[in-house]
Amino acid sequence: MATIEMTYRDAISKVLAEEIEHDENVLIMGEDIGRYQGTFRVTQGMFEKYGGKRIVDTPITEAGFTGIAIGAAMVGLRPVVEMMTMSFSILAMDQIINHAAKIHYMTGGQAKVPLVVRGPGGAAKQLSAQHTHCLEGWYAHAPGLKVVAPATAVDAYGMLRTAIRDDNPVIFTENPGLYTVKGEVPDDRDFSIPFGKAQILHEGKDVSLIGYSRMTQVNLAAAEALEKDGISAEVVDVRSLSPLDMTTINASVAKTHRAVVVYEDWKFGGFGGEIAARIGEESFDELDAPVVRCGGLNVPTPYARNLELECIPDVDDVIAAVRKLG
Amino acid sequence: MAKAKLEELESPAMLEEFYRQMVFIRRFEEKCNVAYRLGKIGGYMHTAVGMEVTPVGFHHVLKPTYDYIITAYRDHPQPLLLGSDPVSVMGEIMGRSAGLSRGKGGSMHVYDIEKGFFGGWGIVGGHIPLGAGLAFGSKYKGEDRVTLCLLGDGAANQGVVFESMNMAALWDLPIIFAIENNEFAMGTRLEYHAADTELYKRGEPFGIKSERVDGMDILSFIKDAKRIVDWVRKEQKPYVMEIMNYRFNGHGAADNDRQLYRTKEEEAAAEKRDPIARLEKVLIDRNIMNREKMEAIDEELTDQVEAIYEAADASPFPDADEVYANVYTDMEPEKGH
Ligand SMILES: Cc1ncc(C[n+]2csc(CCOP(=O)(O)OP(=O)(O)O)c2C)c(N)n1
Ligand SMILES: [Mg+2]
Asked: Is the C-alpha dihedral spanning B84, B312, B105, B261 positive or negative?
């Protein structure tokens, strides 16, 4: 298959444009996405090309327009809601969790909500406490939502297509630190990657580094550094939090017998705890050491750059977690 | 204490003070822009260049440090006027230990609670119910404080604004919802985000007294603001003000694409309404000050700002331990990765 090298951001733009052209019911809604070209420029050029019917600039009313997207989805549209940052989706959480996630169930299957909520989630640079949240774990907690967090350009491309064509509400989170990461992306308007499939991005035999979104990139760098110290780390990219592919995770642990779960969200009560618990339940006999979590510090993210960097797990933190395993 | 008489607000000494304060804010903000470009300030930073009349005008008709002020992320001018140590304001914006929050808040989150300045908020609309809560608190305690709640034209669309206005009217809360209509919500023009662009009308369905005022002319503004503040204090009821102004800079320091939402001609026309230039004309017409004096004041204030910046820049980054301080009042969170 022919591939094109592009950034994570361009991969998302490409699939959005292709799906707009593929299905007349697909539209994008969000703040400053049209005339202003999108805060992170993901929707650049689309307003001019597809017009205001498909690329809808909204007022700053996250609860309102997300609810409107949900209602429109119930009557057959396939809205993609862009959150300028995922932190702002907190304002729409009632619509997402208390409405979208439950509609199919409460109607006994009568109504469907083919909705995507996407946008940058996690730390950018010094955006302070109110603009720096990793919410994928919060959403994954709610039955009825599918939640994905791709780490590479090709996965962003393939999984966003799956998200748009899925009949359930999907949370699609893009770490701002990933937008410039490059990769080969298939030039195929039907290429998609199914949810619920983790992948091994780097083979190893001594320890499994399990993560998603930008932490997968951190894990890849950590694996390289550990290699120099004679430790062979396997990088498991979870990609999809809900549904969660425990088969691939357990298979890796069966090979390495040690696991570190890495996540940017607050360590306390974060999604890494779910993965760690599941490994404990399902792979107990394979483990040579307790599963270790490596998460973000349990504090609102501070502004000062030195403190902010303290909060986010980096290569050194992952290596330190590996060392804890003995 | 607030100046009691209207005539005093037009005295030569008062006009000179307005001038000094507006020029000081402008030079301070411009220095922030330069520091941002040098990488000394990061994240999102928003200046009030062109919008100096609102903070300066209110400062002279409120009771500074007694009344409460709350605003969004365009929050540098208020603490400077209230007498917060300017080095700690700049230090906060630069993320240094000298900052008001020891570098943990940054430009969008400047607070000086002791001086009645409640910040400094990054979620558009989020602080508006908090403002109504400040008013609820002062009224509950039987005080006669006024709460000034500043918000933007874009923020005026958030649902909590309407909820807050309803309750403020229902419970007679002494709050001014001061909507600064600078014509833009980031990259979105007013007419693309508001179904009715006369934003003062948003108070009317709740029976709140509401009006539109000029926010580029300090002399007319101060009269309007005084009348309204005095009314709110006396009646202990809410008020909606729509303050017409314009932001001269980009939305934030990272907004390099102003031409996506406004033309150069439009900017040039707006600059003709520059509130500082307008005040200069009054000062000259009334023989209060000549150009030379103005230049001398400007130079003096520019030097002051420079010294503030240097002092803030000499302050170290926060200690690593600072990361865990103030998560709770009485305990620390679980530590480590
Ligand atoms: C809930 C929320 N949505 C979006 C944003 C991003 N954002 C920050 S400021 C802004 C525009 C606000 O415009 P306005 O209220 O008019 O204030 P101004 O910047 O003009 O002072 C937007 C969209 C945000 N910070 N919070
Ligand atoms: Mg505005």
From this structure: positive
Query: Structural domain tally of chain B?
Result: 1
Average pLDDT of span B123-152? 98
| pLDDT reported for residue B2 | 52
Which residues are within 8 A (CB) of B177 and not within 5 positions of it... i.e. 6 or more apart? Answer: B128, B131, B149, B151, B161, B164, B165, B168, B203, B208, B238, B239, B240, B241
End-to-end CA distance of chain B: 50
Q: Are B64 and B81 in contact (CB under 8 A)?
A: yes
B325 within some domain: no
| Chain B contact present for A7, CB below 8 A | no
Structural domain includes residue B109: yes
Section A252-276 average pLDDT = 98
pLDDT score at B194:
97
| Positions of A marked catalytic | 62, 131
B239-292 pLDDT, tens digit each? 999 999 999 999 999 998 999 999 999 999 999 999 999 999 999 999 999 999
Burial tier of A53 (Cβ tally within 10 Å: 0-12, 13-18, 19+): exposed
Tokens representing A217 are 């990139």
> A298 to chain B, minimum CA–CA distance in Å?
6
- Using a CB cutoff of 5 Å, list residues around ligand 2, an ion: B 152-153, 182, 184
| pLDDT of B5 | 74
Amino acid at B311: A
Res A110: pLDDT: 98
A203-217: average pLDDT = 98
Size of interface A-B (CB pairs under 8 A): 142
Nearest to A201 by CA among A154, A244, A159, A161: A154
pTM summary value? 0.97
Catalogue all structural domains in chain A, each as residue range(s) with its CATH number. 3-186 (3.40.50.970), 199-324 (3.40.50.920)
Q: Which residues of B touch A296 (CB under 8 A)?
A: 337
Residue of B nearest to A35 (CA): B260
With CB atoms and an 8 Å threshold, state whether A300 touches B327: yes
**Residue B298 counted as domain residue:** yes
Average pLDDT value for chain A = 98
B329-336 contacts, C-beta under 8 A, 24 or more apart: B333/A268, B333/A297, B333/A298, B333/A299, B334/A267, B334/A268, B334/A298, B335/A297, B335/A298, B336/A267, B336/A297
Burial of B287 (0-12, 13-18, 19+ CB in 10 A): exposed
Residues of A in contact with B93 (CB under 8 A): none
What mean pLDDT value characterizes chain B?
Answer: 97
B1 falls in which pLDDT band (50, 70, 90)? very low
- Residue B148 sits in a domain whose CATH number is 3.40.50.970
* Ligand 1, atom 21, residue with closest C-alpha: B152
Q: Which residues line ligand 1 (CB under 6 A)?
A: A 31, 60, 62, 84, 88, 91; B 74, 122-124, 152-155, 182, 184-186, 251
Residue A259 contacts by C-beta under 8 Å, 6 or more apart in sequence? A207, A208, A210, A252, A253, A276, A279, A283, A287, A291, A292
Give per-residue pLDDT as tens, A101-147. Answer: 999 999 999 999 999 999 999 999 999 999 999 999 999 999 999 99
Q: How far apart are CA A171 and CA A148, in angstroms?
A: 6
